[in-house]
What we know:
Helix content is 16%, strand content 29%. It is an alpha/beta fold.
Amino acid sequence: MQFSAQQIAGMLNGTIEGNPEATITKLSKIEEGVPGSLSFLSNPLYTPYIYQTRASIVIVNKSFIPENPVAATLIRVDNADIAFAKLLEVYNQIKNDKKGISKLSSIDGSAKLGVNVYVGEFAVIGEHVAIGDNVKIHPQVFIGDNTIIGDNTILFAGVKIYSDNKIGNNCIIHAGAVLGSDGFRFNQQDGENIKVPQIGNVIVEDHVEIGANCTVDRATFGSTIIRKGVKLDNLIHIGHNVEVGENTCIAAGTGIAGSTKVGKNCMISGHVAMTGHITIADGTILGGATGVSKSLTKPGQMYLGTPALEVSKFRRSTVLFRNLPELVERIDKLEKERKKSG
C-alpha cells in the first residue's frame, strides 16, 4: 500500500508543509522512522526526534513550531493523536478486507448470509444463523444455531459463539473469545452439586469490542447483556445474567459474578473482582485488583482495595497500615507504663 502526502492530507483534512508527492508504504514510531514511513508527533517529550527522524512524512499539530530544520514533509492537523488513530483504522480496514467464502468452511443450508461476507477455512455456521452485510468470519470460528450477527462485525480466529445469541453491528470479537457458555450455577443436594440448566442467551449490542480469550456466560434464563460501546480487554469473565452498561471499559483479568449490574461509563482496571447480585453506579472507577463485595450506589466515585473503599478513605487507611508496627509498639509501651503506675 502506497500513499502520498497529498492523499493523506485529504483523508485528515490537513495542510502540507514540504513535498506533497512524498510517499509512504508503512507506519513507524517517530524515533524509529525510516524513508518511506509515516509517523506522528503529539507528545512534547518526543519533539527532539522530529529533527532526527528519517520518516518521509510526519503528522503534527497545527500549533507545532519547529525550532530547527525538519527534513520530513509535515501534515498539520487539529489533533495529531486523533489523526494518526484514524489512519491506523484505515490501515486495519485495508489489511482485514478479506473476501469470499472458503470451500473448507461448513455452512448449514438454513443459514442466511448478507452481502460481502468473508468466511475463512474451517469456520462452522449452524442452523438458522443470520449474518449481516460485510461481516468477517475468520478461520475456525464456530457460530451456533439461531445466532444473529449484525452488519460490519468481525470475528477473529477461533471465536466460539454458542446457540441463540445476538451480536450487534460494528462489533469486534478477538481470537479465542467464547460467548454463550453455561453460567456457573449448581444446587447442592445430598452432598452432590446438581447443575442448573442455563437456557438464556447473550446479547451484545452495537460497537462492542471483546478481547482475546474472554468468556461471556449465557443467562440462566433471560439474557446476559453487553451494552452499546462497551470495550473489554483480554481474559475477562462475565458471569450469567450480568449487565454491563453503555461505554464501560474493563481491563484484563477482571471477573464479574452472576446477576451483577454494572453502570454506564465505568472504568474498571485489571484484576478487579465483583461478587454477584450487586449494582455498580454509573461512572464508577475501580482501581487495579479492587474487590467489590457490595453495591456501589454513588455515581462517579473512585474505589481502591479489598473490600472496596472510596479512594480518600483507602489512602488514609494505607498510611495507617504502613504505620501499624509503630502504633502497636507505642500502645504496648503505654500499656506497660500504665501497669507500672497502677
